[in-house]
Design a protein that fits this description.
Layout lengths: L4 H15 L2 H15 L16 H5 L2 H19 L4 H14 L7 H18 L6 H22 L2
Helix pairs in contact: 1-4, 1-7, 2-4, 2-6, 5-7, 6-7
The structure holds protoporphyrin IX containing FE.
The site of protoporphyrin IX containing FE (HEM) has 18 residues, from helix 4, helix 5 and helix 6.
Keywords: Heme, Iron, Metal-binding, Oxygen transport, Transport
InterPro entries: Globin (IPR000971), Globin-like_sf (IPR009050), Globin/Proto (IPR012292), Globin_lamprey/hagfish (IPR013314), Mb-like_M (IPR044399)
Protein name: Cytoglobin-like
Length: 151
Amino acid sequence: MALSAGEIKLVTDSWTAVYANKKANGVALFVRLFSENPGFQSQFRYLDGVSGLAAIEKTPALGDHAVKVMDTINSWIGSLGDSSAMVAKLTALGTSHIALKVTPANFDAMGPVLLWMLQEKAGGAFTPAAKDAWAKGWDLMKSHIVKALQG
Ligand code: HEM
């Protein structure tokens, strides 16, 4: 179900707080993804031969990738009020991840990690109402990604 104008504002305001520091927060997002899901590391070719979370965190390619991911999410947030534009972007992401062998389970794991980043890094903007709006927003985004991922 689409987000209300109030929910879009809650998502946008808390996102703006984390996007202001996109590289560091994007790296923190991935380090958390790997610490919670150690098996995922092997899906990322630029982490071949990199061992341990401290080394992962310092890998330059992870910083570059993290910025791309944060920019992509930022573009989705900017389209929350324009459903057809947002669905087109989410579908493109899902389709691009088929060849990367990413699974729906990978995207299921991303939700709690995204919420963790917001909780840790968005300061006061991540209110209980913002958390509820994000949970609803991520479910909506994920549903379109997974639909495209499954062809
Ligand atoms: C918020 C969700 C996600 C976003 C916004 C995102 C975004 C991106 C972007 C922008 C790229 C660069 C290539 C491209 O444009 O297709 C990429 C690559 C990639 N993504 Fe995602 N992604 C997300 C979730 C995931 C998940 C959950 C996984 C697996 C656990 C994953 C695995 C990969 C891999 C393996 C690559 C290739 C990295 C490389 O070797 O350079 N992504 N992603």
